[in-house]
Design a protein that fits this description.
It comes from Arabidopsis suecica (Swedish thale-cress). The chain is an alpha/beta fold. The protein is built from 14 helices and nine strands.
Length: about 375
């Protein structure tokens, strides 16, 4: 695989300071100390939070250079390093979430499990690994965990208790693939946005099912600016671009979805009065990277670090990151996009810093709220 040299080694002072601050904040012991009980997290979603589920579940190869930074090897994550969910776990000083389908490595799932699988969507609902299927997997996981914990006193501490499930955080980050696939099938903007109520209904139904299972603390991510992804930009022939070079129709659909998701959260706060439901504006965070890329030290914000084709997007659907003929930039920290769809570790670190700031959560809530007693 070729290495693509694009920029010099001189970083802006602001960029270095910002990334260093992000990593410092995420590793502060005082944040972890805010948890007075062992944090337990269950995550549902797609490739934005898949920590190895696709590889474990389907044996799909995700090879190097994925994982080349923090892990120094591919772990099934679609990034050069850690994902947003990894940084959020580290902020609590808890282990990184293991994929539910990963049966190796002495996995005990004592701090939760990750049901997210790359490519997942809400529709159709009965196809692996839709959100509906992920919630069914959770139900089985919970039932089996409690059964094993009750079978022997020596096993009680090795599995999550009923209180552990009740006090856990339930994270959902899904919907991006529903919108993207509608456009990919050739559907118009109006046809795509007509699907949004169905997508929202599936997410709402899943949250209610998790509530019925005892869940009371929910953390809901909206979707990012799809129209700014190098993959979409390289594959759409007729481009209606905004001032920053992003596809207007894709971003407008994402915005409508996010508005519906926000409204759904408002409804659920009324319907499930003893539940805490936090809505996170990931779109605003990620779009700020594109609109203010120079301030963050990102160059060519619409270009993938790992891919094929060079400027303007370095993405070719036939030669994607990690496959023969693809190239990879030397400094992923100068890029927002890792492979044309997913973010670099540096971008993910800054997203995490902003999520932890509480400026993008509604209502403003610290991430560790669920593990304080």
């Amino acid at each position: 695989m070729a290495t693509l040299f694009l920029y010099s080694n001189t970083f802006s002072f602001f960029f270095i300071t910002l990334v260093s601050l992000a990593l410092l904040i995420l590793r502060q012991p005082s944040r972890a100390a805010s948890c007075t009980a062992r944090p337990v997290i269950f995550n549902f979603g797609d490739s934005n939070s898949d920590t190895g589920g696709l590889v474990a579940g389907l044996g799909y190869p995700i090879g190097f250079p994925n994982g080349r930074l923090f892990f120094r090897r591919s772990t099934g994550r679609l990034s050069d390093g850690r994902l947003l969910i990894d940084f959020l776990c580290q902020s609590l000083n808890t282990s990184l979430l293991r994929p539910y389908l990963d049966s190796l490595g002495r996995t005990r799932f004592q701090n939760g499990a990750n049901f997210a699988i790359a490519g997942s969507s809400t529709l159709p609902k009965n196809v692996p690994f839709s959100l509906n299927i992920q919630v069914k997997q959770f139900s089985h996981f919970k039932s089996r965990s409690l059964e094993l914990a009750s079978s022997s006193n020596s096993l009680k501490g090795m599995f999550i208790s009923n209180n552990g499930f009740k006090n856990a955080l339930y994270m959902i980050d899904i919907g991006q693939n529903d919108i993207a696939r509608s456009f990919a099938r050739g559907n118009s903007y109006s046809q795509t946005v007509k699907l949004i109520p169905q997508i929202i209904t599936e997410i709402k139904s899943s949250i209610k099912r998790l509530y019925d299972e005892g869940g009371r603390r929910f953390w809901i991510h909206n979707t990012g600016p799809l129209g700014c992804l190098p993959q979409k930009l390289s594959m759409v022939k007729s481009k209606d671009l905004d001032q920053h070079g992003c596809l207007v129709s894709y971003n407008s659909a994402a915005t409508l979805f996010n508005q519906g998701l926000d409204h759904m959260c408002e409804e659920l706060r009324t319907e499930l009065r003893d539940a805490t439901i936090i809505y996170i504006d990931i779109y605003a965070i990620k779009y700020s990277f594109i609109a203010n890329s120079n301030q963050y030290g990102f160059k060519s914000p619409l270009m993938a670090c790992c891919g094929y084709g060079g400027t303007p997007y370095n993405y070719n659907v036939k030669i994607t990151c990690g496959h023969k003929g693809s190239n990879v930039c030397e400094e992923g920290s100068r890029f927002i996009s890792w492979d044309g769809i997913h973010y670099t570790e540096t971008a993910n670190a800054i997203v995490a810093m902003k999520v932890l700031s509480m400026h993008y959560s509604k209502p403003p809530t610290p991430f560790h709220f669920f593990c304080r007693r």
